[in-house]
């Protein structure tokens, strides 16, 4: 029989899921894949749809292959495309990586009568599970019957959609570079926005506000510390875990190493750590330690760090510690109100543009994603306890409002953050996609009954 898998979302997560299903298929006649994506571009999503050369990958080429068991796949593609030597230590433009992802699911030149996949440029608004599969409801009223559905919807929107702050990826092009700009947030999105402004000839001041005023750390060449599960205090409280991490870093630095070696050595175990972290420790981590973790774990390329440092030294970029309170559009721009750290009063800088660079943290209801809201409304899904995403089990099967795992609906990428936390970067998503493809296709042959 032919197995039909529908992937909801054609960004990086959905594309990687499709690529791993295709890699494991036995014959085209035994597997059909449909990607449902409303955007015209498949493979790029928000992360890789930028057209600016200054927006680089935050991970080196050697860690960006779509296939973890073939680490040079991306570098070989770069060489074939004439886009450089594919040096494993390079940080290439994100738009280049978007092309790579799109190429993974591009039609084959010698395609057989049964296509390897189909792309529907529509919005998915509903999923209905029945005994033999799942019906995928589309915005035009049609229904797509499938055996399995994979949610690859990326980050879910939150209540900031009603804010007067601007979307960092949908800013107007007509702006005066001499006018000041206010950025809320100082993470990797802020780095992208500053680089974009510099590339456009910005001469007006840029003020970036965040609660801690911390910037992402810069990458360096590292030698990841070899850590086994036995070395790490899995299941301990957050306090003990952080004490262990600080002690390990100090010992490694005393021996001539770099703190990055420890963080990179811990990376393969972070999802296991999260799953076994007590619920209260998870809450405390998000409240008190996640910003520090993110600035050390999600680093920026050295070239980006150098440009940011230069902008700071010249006075063009100013980093401010403060608690964002609100933003209000005016005739001349946007006024941002924030309370400086350690102060009782508030300040109200105004910029021609005020851009939201805080990234995504939690889901707020109702969510603007019609599919996810439908799944929540009819009880097919529930939010994870920390509202980071939907709730999934250890196999990435969707959990309903009664705590039952779905035999037909699965997730991949940021929508599963509540289960894995560290699932926003390609090196993590590709492992998840490989695991899910193995689960759905079975081994050695395709079997719906074996995986349902």
UniProtKB/TrEMBL annotation:
Bias-annotated ranges (Polar residues): 331-346
Transmembrane residue ranges: none
Domain of life the protein comes from: Bacteria
Region (Disordered): 331-351
Residue span(s) of domain FAD-dependent urate hydroxylase HpyO/Asp monooxygenase CreE-like FAD/NAD(P)-binding: 7-154
InterPro entries according to UniProt: FAD/NAD-bd_sf, HpyO/CreE_NAD-binding, L-asp_N-monooxygenase_NS-form
Family matches, as PANTHER family: BLR0577 PROTEIN
Name used for this protein in its record: FAD-dependent pyridine nucleotide-disulfide oxidoreductase
